[in-house]
Specification:
Belongs to the polyphosphate kinase 1 (PPK1) family. The chain is an alpha/beta fold. It is built from 19 helices and 28 strands. Helix 11 packs parallel to helix 12 and helix 12 runs parallel beside helix 13.
């Protein structure tokens, strides 16, 4: 298999490339296409519900993961970061099977198959997922074994296989196995009194073929050998055992495999093969059956480790009869079996990135900047009161928000703090500041979304910590996840109360703020802050929806207003006026919003969509979507900003939001969408959007047939949006 980087990814590929038409603008441009001025000729009526106009959500999600894998072949990324992308592909695929594939299988099992707007039944989607994933997993291991591992070895980083150990290394491994592994390993022989064990989701295990008679007279057969979960999956060899100039590692799987005979003394080990089972990890909490959400989730978290099987990974040399035996035990089909040429748990290799001191093989470090208006020697309350502050993470510092919250916690004039938390850590500076505020006697109310997927345990822990400090902890609304990113502060100033607020597109998580692109707005705008206050009251209390003047919030008005603003742009185009919209978000799947975009395109609106992941809209269909361009930016940082810009007949509106264009965000979550009322800040965000629209290094353009094509600078000047924004906003060395 050729591992040369392809500019198209399946389904289907032809290695074609494209470049931006027209003159190449300089870096950091302020220009986008001008839109349509002449009233277009009308197209005949079209059926916008036609399934042919929609891509399948799950297959689109899978294609995003493939675009991530493509980064492992991109030489513009440092070598260890290329390995990181390959491992992220594994991690993403794990979650894809745990949630999305598991959901489809559940529908099939219950004979309750539901098709989306694309019309594909779940059985057909599962078959296509299996076909694509088998191709891409094989390709992933080929990239690892034939491209990345040899390249890493050239740079002095070596992964030693069992057959490559020197005598000294083999002796060290033997001692390590005896002292660290053997005392905690628990082999399980399979016989009538030892049924097949219940194995933990995604755990590393071995199936062992045995021959002979044991101490109790039992004839050999098969055994299961779970790898101890307490041990690292990759061990660094002592430097004195490594070849000069090399850092060398051995896999736990290799160490266990090499010493399987020791685990079964007196028996002959005829074969030892690693495998890993992926289980359904979605949590099922019925609002009508739950009186205590926290207690219910604690029980579900235990059940998550033992959900029904959805995928089996085995070593590629595992005999067919053993693979079939495992499939039978896990009630899986041949289509669910993935044979891999290497470790079955690749994600655990991520530890190499932090273990190796090789900055030359990683992205260069940078110091996040701050807006020029921010002064270190002036209270942030004073500065926010003077003018709104907008931050673009990770290029600009998230620590400013942490500093402001800590200032609020210590400020005797601050009376109350309210905040939503979706994903954060119990030991984060944000939580620490809230704890300090509660201990300082302030009214602290925190809305914690316990059901943030795969962060449930952390959120339960931080809820306990906040409650112990005296904060009021609310778990939101049972039937709706609280996904909004809001912080509200009440402060007494000159005898009166004044509101301050933070609104963002991303989570209050200092780690992801260094990796995800997001916007943060710090404001004292009275109308905006009053709206934030009303949303918090709505979350903590009960009653009819409140009158909210400036914010758009889900599940009440956000969806209808977005449709209305898209339709408004269409009306401008129908009058022959300039009409343009730019939507930047993570996913676009909601059919009504897609139909609104189709209507806008038919009217002549220039629609630029920057959709990182899933996109169910089909661009470039004559008479339907030829005015729609969809691109996905994949690079060093995870694109996470949600920004919606409308030209609006020369009275532009720019909005930031916590919500994607998805059904769940519009109808089953509490979300906020806030306008940038400061014209300079709105112009700055539009400038950022324009930068993304001229990227010709990391942009993948969605084609009418569903393929993504990597835009190629060709002979033009290469433009990387992320690098441009990094240069524009980060602190200068």
């Amino acid at each position: 298999m050729d591992d040369t980087r392809s500019s198209d990814v399946p389904l289907g590929s032809d290695n074609a490339t494209s470049q931006e038409a027209g003159e190449t603008p300089p870096l950091r441009v302020n220009r986008t296409r001008t839109g349509i001025h002449a009233k277009p000729a009308p197209f005949p009526e079209a059926d916008l519900d036609d399934p042919a106009l929609y891509f399948n959500r799950e297959l689109s999600h899978l294609q995003f993961n493939i675009r991530v894998l493509e980064q492992a072949l991109d030489p513009s990324h440092p070598l260890l970061n290329r390995l990181m992308f390959l491992l992220i592909f594994s991690s993403n695929l794990d979650e894809f099977f745990e949630i999305r594939v598991a959901g489809l299988k559940h529908q099939v099992a219950l004979a309750r198959e539901e098709s989306g707007a694309d019309g594909l039944p779940p059985r057909q989607v599962l078959a296509e997922i299996s076909r694509i994933t088998h191709e891409q997993v094989e390709r992933q291991y080929h990239i690892l074994n034939e491209t990345l591992i040899p390249a890493l070895e050239e740079q002095g980083l070596r992964f030693r296989r069992r057959t490559q150990w020197t005598e000294a290394q083999a002796a060290w491994v033997r001692e390590y196995f005896a002292e660290e592994i053997m005392p905690v390993i628990s082999p399980i022989g399979l016989d009538p009194s030892h049924p097949f064990p219940r194995l933990v989701n995604k755990s590393l295990n071995f199936i062992v073929e045995l021959e002979g008679t044991d101490a109790f007279g039992r004839e050999g057969g098969m055994a299961i050998l779970p790898a101890p979960r307490s041990l690292p999956r990759l061990m660094r060899l002592p430097s004195e055992l490594c070849e000069s100039g090399y850092t060398e590692y051995v896999f736990l799987s290799s160490m266990i495999h090499a010493h399987a005979q020791v685990v079964f003394p007196g028996m002959e080990v005829r074969g030892c093969y690693q495998f890993r089972l992926t289980r359904n990890a979605d949590l099922a909490v019925d609002p009508e059956d739950v009186s205590d959400l926290a207690s219910a989730l604690r029980g579900e978290l235990l059940a998550r480790r033992y959900g029904s099987g959805v995928r089996l990974e085995v070593a590629d040399n595992c005999p067919d009869q053993l693979s079939r035996f495992l499939l039978t035990q896990f009630e899986l089909d041949e289509a669910d079996l993935y044979r891999v040429s290497g470790p079955v748990n690749l994600t655990r290799l991520m530890s190499v990135l932090s273990d190796v001191d090789r900055p030359d093989l990683l992205y260069r470090t940078f110091t996040p900047g701050l807006p020029r208006q921010v002064k270190s020697d002036v209270s942030l309350f004073t500065q926010i009161a003077q003018s709104d502050i907008l931050l673009h993470h990770p290029f600009q510092s998230f620590s400013l928000i942490e500093d402001w919250l800590q200032e609020a916690a210590d400020d005797p004039d601050v009376l109350a703090i309210k905040q939503t938390l979706y994903r954060t850590g119990a030991d984060s500076p944000i939580v620490g500041a809230l704890v300090n505020a509660a201990r300082n006697g302030k009214e602290v109310t925190v809305v914690i979304e316990l059901r943030a997927r795969f962060d449930e345990a952390d959120n339960l822990a931080l809820a306990s910590r906040l409650q112990e400090a005296g904060a009021i902890v609310i778990y939101g609304v049972m039937a709706y996840k609280t996904h909004a990113k809001m912080l509200h502060v009440v402060r007494r100033e000159r005898g009166a109360l004044r509101y301050y607020a933070h609104l963002g597109t991303g989570n209050y998580h200092s780690k992801t703020a260094k990796l995800y692109t997001d916007y943060s707005l710090l404001t004292a705008n009275e109308t905006l802050c009053e709206d934030v206050h009303k949303v918090f009251q709505q979350l903590s209390g009960m009653g009819k929806p409140r009158q909210i003047d400036t914010l758009l919030h889900a599940p009440f008005v956000l969806h209808d207003r977005l449709v209305s603003m898209i339709d408004r742009e269409a009306r401008h185009a129908e009058k022959g006026q300039k009409a343009q919209l730019i939507i930047k978000c993570n996913s676009l799947t909601e059919p009504q919003l897609i139909r609104a975009l189709y209507r806008a395109s038919r009217a002549g609106v220039q629609c630029d969509l920057i959709i990182r992941g899933m996109c169910c809209l089909r661009p470039g269909v004559e008479g339907i979507s030829e005015n729609i361009r969809v691109r996905s930016i994949i690079g060093r940082f995870l694109e996470h900003t949600r920004v919606f810009h409308f030209h609006n007949g020369g009275k532009p509106e720019t909005w930031c939001s916590s919500a994607d264009f998805m059904e769940r965000n519009m109808f089953r979550r509490v979300e906020t969408c806030f306008p940038l009322l400061d014209k300079k800040l709105a112009q700055r965000v539009r400038k950022d959007l324009a930068t993304y629209l001229v990227d010709n290094c990391q942009s993948w353009e969605l084609q009418t047939d569903g393929r993504y094509r990597l835009l190629d600078a060709g002979d033009a000047e290469p433009i990387s949006a992320q690098e441009t924004l990094l240069y524009a906003y980060a602190a200068k060395p």
